[in-house]
Amino acid sequence: MDATALDDKEYKELLEAVRFVYGYDFTEYAESTVKRRIVHFMNTHRIGTPSALGKMLLRDEPLFEEFVQHLSITVTEMFRDPSFYKKLREIVMPQLATYPVIKLWVAGCATGQEAYSMAILLKEAGLLERSIIYATDINQRSLQTAKKGIYPLDGMKNYTKNYLAAGGQGEFSRYYAAHHAAVLLDRSLHDNIVFSPHNLVTDRSFNEFQLVLCRNVIIYFNQRLQEKVLRLLYDSLCPFGYLGLGDKESLFFSDKRTNFEEIDRKEKIYRKIK
């Protein structure tokens, strides 16, 4: 079965059932992406129809958790898009240094690499001890991985390359200890991060932040949902707070574009001005 064979009526009924029973709303995610992932999930589990999938999800909570894991965005790495982090280091860190307490929100943190990257950035700027990083995601399994701070050893070569390209100050290896085929990130990076569930689609703002990162998340939403999430991010920023989006995302078509100053067009860094 491929995504084109997924009937629109059955597709919508499935998402409505999931929203009604579990409170997860995927109805305004980009349809082509969600359909493709649903079909892949059905093929993997040898489930023949969306109605059969729906019945199984509504009575089998572990299967549903796996389904959410499959639909959620979990592709990430440390210092992904190094030039973005280099700009944060050069432009945003000096501004954050002016605050007595620094609050950051990494929205859609997936398995946590972006949050730990920010912790390293803050540590090297001498700001981590007075910072709180709130890292949130819809996906509970991803959050469990993030809290542990344990990642495959074979990713470290790429992470090290990213770190150095992002202007890293020293040896990246000082931030982790290798154990067989895995690495454990240094405890000092954990201490100022709060990992917590948060649904960008249904939940509200929960604090005021000097910096919000929501990178490579809203690209998977339709235009209406993008606007809703951007309003949430706007409401979560303090006056003159900074917003970082992914390289394929933009405020250009947003109603909120006039509320932001473009700090770096290429890196999609903005500052709230009104």
TrEMBL record:
<dbReference type="InterPro" id="IPR022641">
    <property type="entry name" value="CheR_N"/>
</dbReference>
<dbReference type="InterPro" id="IPR022642">
    <property type="entry name" value="CheR_C"/>
</dbReference>
<dbReference type="InterPro" id="IPR050903">
    <property type="entry name" value="Bact_Chemotaxis_MeTrfase"/>
</dbReference>
<feature type="domain" description="CheR-type methyltransferase">
    <location>
        <begin position="1"/>
        <end position="261"/>
    </location>
</feature>
<protein>
    <submittedName>
        <fullName>Protein-glutamate O-methyltransferase CheR</fullName>
    </submittedName>
</protein>
<dbReference type="InterPro" id="IPR000780">
    <property type="entry name" value="CheR_MeTrfase"/>
</dbReference>
<dbReference type="Pfam" id="PF03705">
    <property type="entry name" value="CheR_N"/>
</dbReference>
<dbReference type="Pfam" id="PF01739">
    <property type="entry name" value="CheR"/>
</dbReference>
<dbReference type="InterPro" id="IPR029063">
    <property type="entry name" value="SAM-dependent_MTases_sf"/>
</dbReference>
<dbReference type="GO" id="GO:0008757">
    <property type="term" value="F:S-adenosylmethionine-dependent methyltransferase activity"/>
</dbReference>
